[in-house]
Design goal:
The complex is a heterodimer of chains A (341) and B (277). Chain A is mainly α. Chain A starts with a helix and ends in a 21-residue tail after the last helix. Chains A and B meet through helix 1, helix 3, helix 4, helix 5 and helix 7 of A and helix 2, helix 4, helix 5, helix 6 and helix 7 of B.
């Protein structure tokens, strides 16, 4: 009894200690930088802040970033939906390879993402002569920025949708088809409502990255002030010119969008979890049959090598089910928040 | 015709979506990336080797490698603690902290770059205090490590968190009831189960650190041979119209990141196999 009590006591101490370490680390690394951005931005008062945001160069940077995002996000969204549809709804040879290829931009440095478009469209690039002859400029111009941003944000929507659509299975779509719906109707009225929160989540991530991409855009834009400077590039220019307050004022704008992104993200995760638990559920009995575990683990379970607990890994559970995969298996949520990087 | 339909099931759109996916993938990713390989192939082995073995290139690669490794190690440790606290304990403000972990991911890299620089510069909030202690952070390799810790943190936390959530509490209870101490339970039961996730998070943070540009260029000081990271050297070479040199270095960096990807997949495969035996 005494031993147990001291154990509980030391457990509380560990808990308290770990929480302190975690919160302290996050405060030092996340909260203080946030506070610094706001302090620096408002250091010289509201009027200077307002002035740096309404500066013509700032306004043109905001406009450029807006247009880039408006082009990039819908394109990658359409691609994401198409890719998720063919990867999640069908089984075909090379499917795994296709998924790996879609992931490539994640593992490429932003700088290299810019470099490859210079190799393609730059003055010494493959199409350089042709473009020069036709007076089309891609590098150091708007199209280059769009291409680099497209590359960097390429997998984001697809990566959110693929696991989500896989976990939802094909039954509802098949039913719709058998009831006479056309392909478009099936997508519009059956699939889309099921994936809407995950889709919004992917769009949100894609949007946030497109707004803030720096490395890739810095390489291809040439930073012609007022012409090819996006918001992050404008911040860099201001900072290098020692206009620190102005730089932080513009930065606070992007910080605000980042915070809003995080708030919407939390909301979408909550929504997604709710949708998952509200799906048509057969699970009440099935988990009991297939991987039920005694409330108290039996010692022999651990000694016996072939015991179900040693055998069934948490991640394998869904695969081992003979039933439609619409079953939300307990544990983490599917889709949202899993593959965001 | 009928056979074809039944071959793929009743769901339509396979040809259309696969075709579009392949087209878009080739146009945006595969063709641009292949130019890099093409350009390097033109160079020839000896000139490629000459560019790579240049001391400045080697120094930048070494710096990128060591700083990313250090930052990933720090993130492995603290990221695990953060994930553990978020999964296992209940306390006030937990949801807020959970949401905040993604901040480095949502914040544009240029913004994090100038913020960390202002924070750790000799006259900054932290920099001033550390300077009194004789520690210089900004414009030193240590500054690069700090920036990479900031960038890499969510990668470790978000990889470890789901696998901690999936962990069977009953296993630990069983271990305890069989007489294991808490350290033994942790070392023998919890750690082996989450090792794949930990390694994956570590490798992802490491790979991201090697390629990171925006958040590092401001704080690093960018002195050739001393605080010049590999991505920055690519940009410098491009500005000097040394496209070939930039390509050679890019190929090296790409090779490293693909090796990391392979390593991650290998680790996961190995652990899955080990657990299933």
């Amino acid at each position: 009894m005494m031993k147990q009590e001291s154990r509980i006591h030391s457990e509380n101490t560990t808990q308290w200690l770990l929480i302190t370490v975690a919160v302290g680390f996050l405060a030092l690394f996340l909260v203080v930088p946030l506070a610094l951005i706001l302090t620096e931005a408002f250091k010289r008062g509201w009027s200077v802040y307002h002035q740096s945001l309404t500066d013509p160069y700032t306004l043109s940077a905001i406009g450029l970033t807006f247009f880039v995002t408006v082009i990039v996000v819908p394109l990658n969204t359409i691609f994401g939906i198409a890719a998720a549809w063919c990867i999640a709804k069908f089984r075909f040879r090379g499917r795994q390879l296709l998924m790996t290829l879609i992931d490539i931009p994640y593992s490429v440095s932003p700088v290299i993402s810019g470099l490859i478009f210079i190799l393609l469209f730059g003055r010494q690039g493959w199409f350089g002569d042709w473009l020069a002859a036709h007076h089309i400029s891609i590098i150091f111009a708007f199209p280059g920025i769009v291409l680099a941003t497209l590359f960097v944000t390429f997998p984001m929507v697809a990566k959110e949708l693929i696991p989500l659509m896989e976990s939802q299975g094909n039954e509802e779509e098949e039913a719709a088809r058998l009831l006479g719906a056309t392909g478009w109707q099936t997508f519009r009225y059956v699939t889309l409502p099921n994936i809407r929160w995950g889709l919004l989540y992917g769009i949100l991530l894609c949007n946030s990255r497109a707004l803030g991409e720096f490395g890739a855009v810095a390489v291809v834009s040439g930073s012609l002030r007022g012409e090819t400077t996006t918001i992050p590039l404008h911040i860099e220019i201001l900072y290098n010119e020692y206009q620190i307050t102005a730089a932080f004022s513009v930065a606070s704008l992007l910080t605000l969008t980042a915070i809003i992104t995080l708030i919407i993200k939390s909301f979408l995760e909550w929504k997604q979890n709710r949708t998952l638990t509200m799906l048509p559920v057969y699970d009440m009995e099935v988990p009991e049959i297939h991987y039920s575990q005694p409330a108290m683990p039996v010692v022999s379970d651990f000694l016996h090598e072939k015991s179900p607990m040693n055998h069934v890994q948490p991640t394998d559970r869904r695969d081992s089910l003979p039933l439609p995969s619409t079953i939300p298996y307990r544990g983490r949520s599917q889709g949202v928040g899993e593959n965001e990087y | 015709m009928m056979r074809k339909i039944f071959h793929r099931g009743v769901i339509p759109g396979f040809g259309l979506t696969l075709g579009f996916t392949m087209f878009y993938l080739s146009a945006v990713v595969l063709i641009p990336l292949s130019t890099l390989v093409g350009k390097s192939a033109q160079m020839g082995v000896s000139s490629f080797w000459k560019m790579i073995s240049n001391p400045r290139v080697l120094a930048s690669c070494r710096l990128s490698f060591t700083t990313s490794l250090l930052a990933a190690l720090v993130n492995l440790f603290f990221g695990f603690i953060v994930a553990w606290v978020l999964v296992r304990y209940e306390f006030r403000g937990k949801r807020l902290i959970d949401a905040m972990v993604d901040l480095p991911f949502a914040l544009p890299t240029a913004v994090s770059g100038i913020t960390l620089t202002a924070l750790y510069a000799p006259d900054g909030w932290f920099g001033y205090q550390l300077n009194q202690l004789g520690i210089q952070v900004a414009f030193q390799p240590l500054g690069i490590v700090i920036a990479l810790i900031f960038i890499g943190l969510p990668f470790v936390v978000r990889t470890v968190q789901p696998s901690l959530e999936d962990l069977d509490r009953e296993m630990e209870e069983a271990a305890t009831s069989l007489g294991a101490t808490r350290f033994q339970t942790f070392w023998r039961v919890i750690l082996p189960t989450i090792t794949p996730a930990l390694l994956t998070g570590f490798a992802t943070a490491f790979a991201r650190g090697i390629g990171e540009y925006g958040s590092v260029v401001f704080i690093s000081g960018n002195l050739p041979m001393k605080t010049e990271i590999a991505p920055l050297l690519i940009v410098t070479k491009l500005e000097q119209h040394d496209t070939k040199g930039a390509c050679a270095l890019a190929i090296v960096m790409l090779t490293i990141s693909f090796c990391m990807l392979l390593l991650i997949n290998g680790i996961q495969w190995w652990c899955r196999r080990k657990q299933n035996i």
